[in-house]
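[Discussion] Sanity-checking designs against the backbone

I'm trying to build intuition for which residues belong where. Below is a structure token string of 263 positions. I'd appreciate it if someone posts a full sequence so I can compare it with mine line by line.
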């Protein structure tokens, strides 16, 4: 197996609820994402997948989150849980990228898609505007956005959901991240578009030699492109292993149930 790029160890997250009670969202979970690998984090809605991704990005709300002090999230040798706000922000702009279910939650509606990628490249890659524009057209071409020379001037709402997600992928890989966290990136899309976006993600993973943590409630969609699977249930990991093992010889009754739900 490749070296771990990300190592989550005993991650335990509680939320303080309004009535003062604690909700145990993550009950000491441990898993790794090796270099140059796609790991699927799978589980039904409410199992703690997004809380995990937010913890990895240092984005859990400060007001009511309690992270156990023995928890560790090692990325490239640093414990993410110990980083300063500034260091975290830098990490999110460079080595770790993310895409979410709703591209419109990340795309700014008042700027053209081109400008959003250009600004990202100028800020994080120190490119001149001219070089950033040329690279943006290359990236939009790479993610299959039709007519990138013109579409660079489009506003997010002028694109379809699938095209917006392509733009998000272009923006995510623009800074050549080591890890891309994709939280249900295809859930809001039609089935045929879903498949195209999954294929694009798989292509980008290989071409850019990054790792992908692909989060989904649908075990079926990961079969063709994930290398490893982590199955989550009620804030715990009930099973993890290679894609072959999980699909051919699942051990946990919950994994078997997820597999039986496949169309
Ligand atoms: P999913 O696996 O669907 O992504 P989430 O990780 O979003 O699930 O949520 C896991 C559980 O944690 C849910 O019950 C959710 O209501 C709860 N939760 C998430 N964020 C908070 C929060 N900030 N405060 C309280 N509960 C939360
Ligand atoms: Mg979620």
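Best answer:
Here's mine. Compare freely.
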């Amino acid at each position: 197996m490749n070296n771990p790029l990300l190592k989550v160890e005993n991650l335990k997250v509680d939320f303080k609820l309004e009535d003062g009670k604690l909700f145990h969202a993550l009950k000491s979970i441990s898993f790794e994402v090796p270099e140059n690998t796609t790991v699927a984090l799978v589980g039904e809605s409410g199992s703690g997948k997004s809380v995990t991704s937010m913890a990895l990005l240092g984005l859990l709300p400060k007001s009511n989150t309690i992270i156990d002090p023995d928890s560790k999230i090692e990325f490239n040798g640093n414990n993410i849980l110990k980083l300063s706000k500034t260091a975290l922000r830098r990490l999110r702009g460079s080595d770790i990228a993310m895409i979410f279910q709703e591209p419109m939650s990340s795309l700014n509606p008042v700027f053209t898609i081109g400008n959003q990628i250009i600004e990202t490249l100028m800020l994080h890659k120190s490119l001149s505007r001219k070089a950033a524009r040329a690279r943006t057209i290359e990236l939009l071409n790479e993610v299959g956005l039709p007519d990138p020379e013109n579409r660079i001037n489009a506003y997010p709402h002028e694109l379809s959901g699938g095209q917006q997600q392509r733009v998000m992928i272009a923006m995510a890989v623009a800074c050549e991240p080591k890890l891309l966290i994709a939280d249900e990136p295809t859930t809001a899309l039609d089935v045929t578009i879903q498949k195209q976006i999954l294929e694009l993600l798989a292509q980008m993973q290989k071409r850019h030699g990054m790792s992908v943590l692909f989060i989904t409630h649908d075990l079926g969609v990961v079969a063709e492109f994930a290398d490893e699977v982590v199955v989550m249930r009620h804030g715990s990991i009930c099973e993890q292993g290679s894609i072959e093992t999980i699909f051919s010889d699942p051990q946990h009754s919950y994994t078997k149930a997820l597999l039986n739900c496949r169309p």
